[in-house]
Write a structure and sequence with these properties.
The structure holds two protein chains of two kinds. By secondary structure, chain A is mainly α. In chain A, about 70% of the residues lie in helices and about 0% in strands. Chain A has a single domain, classed as Orthogonal Bundle (MetI-like fold), CATH 1.10.3720. In chain B, a hairpin with a 2-residue loop joins β19 and β20. The longest helix of chain B has 18 residues. The radius of gyration of chain B is 25 Å and the shape is globular. The two termini of chain B are about 35 Å apart. The chains are: A mainly alpha, B alpha/beta. Chain A: One of its GO terms (cellular component) is plasma membrane. Chain A: It is found in: Cell membrane.
């Protein structure tokens, strides 16, 4: 069975993919749906959802359209999630690959360096980094990338170590291929499946991290994001539930979608590991 | 009076498998005190019947029709609770991998005692005494110590004895042994087979012995069943089947076994293709700040040479250092001292960049046909990567790859396929083609046919013999199987614990072994007497 067939036979993964595509579309089309942007004050504040025509999710403390905020927030969440994951992969994959392939002191050095980052709690480090770099979209993305690459490095290192012991790598050495050639052409392509799975889950974590930072007021002040919406609604959480509920639901749905996709990818890429009873 | 009577048993495979039934219309019985050997190649369904009897069928595989009568009941239909009570008590099983079949965190004595506990027999003190008796019965050395040992402290053969002790604990009427000696060295295998024969005589239990090795059959079987594609193709007493096989398949299987008979080796007196002088390699294991590391001398001052066009067999048991020697010759392992001279250059002394340029002189054919080809590369790439790195023009390398695929009998068009589209034997042919593509002066075949079924093994050996004549190849053929070595090699070198104990022409080593270790090794080959008698 092909990879694609296995993936779409998993109902959860298909649902996740559907939600993610919808969020992506909304994010891409945001300027067309709300040309005035998320900051425009359109009505009086604290309008309850489903009561006013044209404002299905009501308005916030300053009379801004909650739905417009959600739509624009999707752009930020997805952008930060994807870019920071790509950056984390760019740091983690080469470091882990070199450590696993060369072993000995290269491995020792790279892993001690990785542990240095792992000993500091992720979120605390991210807060410190954002505070030092001044909150902006770029600094948040960089901070999230810096706290999320160590697990990638460890995963890639372990995979590379196991693949390097296979006989075809010995055969490539005997063929006189250079170390770099063996690592990039023979070893790394055989480690992609777990990396893909991990990356899909990392995007979800990055979205959560970004929301948490924005919630604490460490987000980019010029950009509307889901975390910021929740943070701003914190003081009125008892009188205006919808201000924190809808952005929260958006985060839950997107993260859930990504997790479902990650699990589906895992089952599809490693068919022999997939759980029993579904064959 | 039969202990187990299987009638018209069919076991259905899940949809999408390569055939509908793992086992089809299979009927046989085992009498008390009898050893029945079930023989077949991989995928013949030989283990499935045993798994069904024990209730160990894998997910999705079910019994379609038939009965298995044991003690007056059809054990295929009894309840789980009844089946559990039968297991261990009246039917016991031993497995192929003694390492994974024992719990690594439990002492041997406790594991044996646990069998009694599971069936609520005896007091704890009695259990311990019984466990000690069993350890004595399976002839484990130093029983008082073994009872407190953990599995990792035992050798493979000792672990298998411990497994047998567990199986015997409740004096079963039927013992099912699924390839119990396949993972063991020949000398250990011979001891375990003898132990099983002894126990059968002493206890009068029935034994169902599943194996792929006709040598083992000759050694142990009373009656034999030969299986292919889930069907029984031949049955009879051991002598009937081995001496006068009726079915074509059995005949072919028997013909494919490398015979113990030795051809007179041709004299080779040409320039050496490989010369090894005083090679040494020591591994240091463990050790720390205050502990001395344990030293293992994998290669202990070995010197030998291989002439151009000669096949030298390197035999030895696991841990003898034969594979390390092979890997040291190609410098996948760097030796501590000594010289490895191939075509005038000392491979052991080259720097990394010189080594890469000299790599093509020695090539290797690996053991595991599934791990030795990159699953993401087409065959064409596996065959051309090396030559292109060596400086051969791309289209030339491609043309040569097609030619080589013809040579090894797979057809030029097969180059565009992926490794998973080939069977184990075909992959091994690709491995040979890959080695030839580099135009090496010496090929090292490290257990190159050990992972293959006998009939496939014979074909690959034929190919190697043919190639050797056509290209005047020099081969260092590393194997644990003396019969295979006798078939292909001109000279044999025997290694034990890193030392070369004997080297000489095949006929000399086999018919007139000098070193006591070689004698032990030859005596341990299963079915040795039968192999020669059949010729």
């Amino acid at each position: 069975m092909t990879f694609w067939k296995r993936f779409i036979s998993n109902r959860g993964a298909l649902l996740g993919l559907g939600i993610l595509i919808a969020v992506l579309l909304v994010a891409l089309l945001a300027p067309l749906i709300y040309p005035r942007g998320p900051w425009a004050m359109v009505q009086r504040p604290f309008l309850v959802p489903f009561t006013t025509d044209g404002l299905p999710l009501g308005t916030d403390t300053l009379g801004r359209d909650v739905l417009a905020g959600l739509v624009y927030g999707a752009r930020v969440s997805l952008l930060v999630g994807l870019v920071s994951t790509v950056m984390a992969l760019l740091i983690g994959v080469p470091l882990g690959a070199l450590a696993g392939f060369y072993g000995k002191w290269v491995d020792e050095g790279a892993m001690r360096f990785t542990e240095f980052f792992q000993t500091i709690p992720n979120f605390a480090l991210a807060i410190v980094l954002v505070a030092i770099l001044e909150p902006s979209l770029t600094s948040i993305t960089i901070a999230i990338a810096i706290v999320s690459w160590p697990p990638v490095a460890r995963l890639v290192r372990a995979e590379v170590m196991s693949v390097t012991r296979r006989e075809y790598v010995d055969a490539a050495r005997l063929a006189g291929l250079s170390n770099m050639h063996i690592l990039i052409r023979q070893v790394l392509p055989n480690t992609v499946s777990p990396i893909i799975v991990m990356a899909s889950l990392m995007v979800a974590t990055a979205i959560l991290l970004e929301s948490s930072l924005s919630f604490l007021g460490l987000g980019d002040p010029n950009i509307m994001s889901w975390g910021f919406q929740i943070g701003a609604a914190r003081t009125v959480i008892r009188s205006a539930w919808w201000l924190s509920f809808f952005p929260g639901a958006a985060i839950v749905l997107t993260v859930l979608a990504l997790n479902l996709i990650g699990e589906g990818l895992n089952d599809a890429l490693n068919p022999h590991l997939s759980r029993k009873g579904r064959s | 009076m039969s202990v187990l009577k299987i009638t018209d048993l069919s076991i259905a495979l899940p949809q999408g498998a390569d055939r509908a039934f793992a086992v089809q219309d299979c009927s046989y019985q085992i009498a008390a005190g009898e050893i029945l050997c079930v023989v077949g190649e991989s995928g013949s369904g030989k283990s499935m019947t045993a798994n069904a009897v024990m209730g160990l069928l894998p997910e999705g595989v079910t019994v379609a029709t038939g009965t298995a009568e044991f003690g007056g009941k059809d054990i295929l239909t009894v309840s789980d609770a009844e089946q559990r009570a039968l297991r261990g008590d009246r039917i016991a099983m031993i497995f192929q991998e003694p390492m994974t079949a024992l719990n690594p965190l439990m002492r041997i004595g406790d594991q044996i005692a646990e069998v009694f506990e599971a069936h609520k027999r005896h007091t704890p003190a009695e259990r311990r005494a019984k466990a000690l008796d069993l350890i004595r019965e399976v002839q484990l050395p130093d029983p008082e110590k073994i009872i407190r040992a953990y599995p990792f402290q035992l050798s493979g053969g000792q672990r298998q004895r411990a497994m047998i002790a567990m199986a015997l604990a409740l004096e079963p009427e039927l013992l099912i042994a699924d390839e119990p000696t396949t993972a063991l060295d020949v000398t250990t295998q011979a001891q375990i087979l003898k132990l099983i024969l002894d126990l059968r005589d002493r206890r009068g239990m029935a034994v169902m012995f599943i194996t792929h090795d006709f040598g083992v059959v000759a050694e142990i079987a009373d009656r034999v069943i030969v299986m292919r594609y889930g069907e029984i193709v031949e049955r009879g007493t051991a002598t009937e089947v081995l001496e006068a096989p009726q079915h074509d398949y059995t005949k072919r299987l028997l013909a494919a076994i490398p015979s113990g008979l030795v051809a007179a080796s041709s004299e080779v007196a040409k320039a050496p293709a490989l010369e090894i002088r005083n090679l040494e390699k020591t591994y240091r294991v463990g050790g720390g700040l205050f502990r001395q590391p344990r030293e293992v001398r994998a290669i202990d001052t070995v010197s030998l040479s291989i002439a151009r066009g000669e096949v030298l067999g390197l035999v030895g048991e696991s841990g003898s250092g034969k594979s390390t020697l092979g890997r040291a010759v190609v410098r996948l392992v760097t030796p501590d001292a000594g010289e490895v001279i191939v075509g005038g250059t000392d491979m052991a002394a080259l720097t990394a960049s010189d080594l890469r340029a000299a790599r093509h002189k020695v090539q290797m054919v690996f053991q595991d046909p599934y791990a030795s080809l990159n699953p993401r590369h087409r065959v064409m790439r596996a065959l051309t990567d090396g030559p292109i790195a060596k400086g051969v023009a791309k289209d030339k390398a491609r043309a040569r790859a097609r030619e080589l695929m013809e040579t090894v009998g797979l057809g030029a068009d097969a180059v565009d396929r992926f490794p998973h589209e080939f069977s184990g034997g075909q992959r091994q042919r690709i491995g040979i083609a890959r080695a030839l593509a580099m135009d090496p002066e010496l090929i090292i075949a490290d257990e190159a046919v050990s992972a293959l079924d006998v009939s496939i093994q014979a074909q690959v050996l034929d190919l190697l013999r043919d190639l050797r004549l056509r290209f005047d190849l020099s081969i260092l053929f590393i194997t644990h199987d003396l019969r295979v070595a006798a078939q292909l090699c001109d000279r044999i070198a025997v290694m034990q614990k890193g030392k070369l104990v004997e080297i000489g022409p095949v006929s000399e080593v086999f018919l007139n072994p000098q070193h006591s270790y070689t004698q032990t090794l030859l005596a341990a080959v299963p079915g040795g007497g039968w192999g020669q008698a059949a010729q």
